[in-house]
Specification:
The protein is α/β, with parallel strands linked by helices and 276 residues long. It has 12 helices and 10 strands. The protein has a 6-stranded mixed sheet.
Length: 276
């Protein structure tokens, strides 16, 4: 029996497929983080798995975003000086896994959901349903778990600023043009493409994966100090009056209007303080 509460793992021929399932919308919450920590620890010690695919059982959400609702009315919890946030640290561990990691995006990945995908080795998205966004600036924050840093590396300065400050939703075709994902593929073809790529890579010598990832990581790994500064700025501003007001508004709109805010967050973020 699986010990995971929010995900399911299936292994076959050197490939592990991880299915996210954290109702109602796959929030990045405490339960999911506990499972991801356990999964990461298991994969770090696994010598049989060469490729890991991450996909979602939810048709509309890969990973929605970090669960900010618990921060409203909460007690400030500053980070120790010189340390990144626990989420940022976890995503760095995932980025360094010995396996090749592939994200399959069918649905929405915003905030921490997008940052999770950015920590993976490759990202492929459904042309019809894939949607990415970094909405943090709309509530007075910044992507705090590697998003600002990794987007700047992948997209370049100007496009990273557009993504992080504009807070729009990006469809898969535009994300592909910007370099946010590897490819946008027809929805019906995406799982088969990802499965075939994973099996192909898993069939090659393990030493190939080890050496290629080691050199590519050496060239492209984010500056640890930049990740620490990003986390420190995020947590330092999390409990400002303006941020708490905007987060409370966003949570209220989500609760009041069902899935409207979650489904259409990009277009609706600039409506504050109106009711939606």
């Amino acid at each position: 029996m699986s010990t995971y509460r929010t995900l399911r793992r299936e292994d076959s021929h050197g490939v592990a497929v991880i299915h996210f399932n954290n109702p109602p919308i796959n929030l990045v919450d405490r339960a999911l983080l506990v499972d991801l920590i356990a999964l990461t620890k298991a994969l770090e010690a696994d010598q049989d798995i060469r490729v890991v695919i991450f996909r979602s059982d939810h048709p509309d959400f890969f990973l929605a975003h970090y669960d900010l609702a618990g921060e409203v009315g909460g007690k400030p919890r500053p980070l120790p000086e010189g340390m990144a946030s626990p989420l940022s640290t976890l995503l760095t561990r995932i980025s360094r896994l010995p396996q090749v990691t592939i994200g399959e995006l069918q649905g929405r990945a915003r905030g921490a959901g997008s940052e999770f995908l950015l920590a993976l080795d490759m990202r492929f998205a459904s042309r019809e349903r894939g949607l990415l966004g970094q909405p943090e600036a709309a509530v007075g924050l910044l992507p705090g778990a590697g998003g600002t840093v990794r987007l700047a590396q992948l997209l370049g300065r100007a496009r990273a600023l557009e993504v992080c400050l504009g807070c729009h939703d990006f469809d898969a075709e535009l994300a592909e043009r910007y370099g946010w994902i590897n490819r946008a593929l027809p929805d019906a073809e995406l799982p088969a493409f990802v499965d075939a790529l994973a099996r192909r890579i898993a069939g090659f010598p393990a030493s190939s994966i080890t050496h290629v990832k080691a050199v590519v990581n050496k060239v492209t790994e984010p500056d640890p100090q930049a990740l620490i500064e990003e986390s420190q700025r995020f947590v330092g501003n999390m409990y400002s009056d303006e941020t708490l007001k905007r987060v409370a508004w966003m949570v209220e709109q989500t609760n009041k209007s069902g899935s409207t805010m979650e489904m259409n967050m990009g277009p609706l973020l600039d409506r504050y303080p109106a009711e939606i």
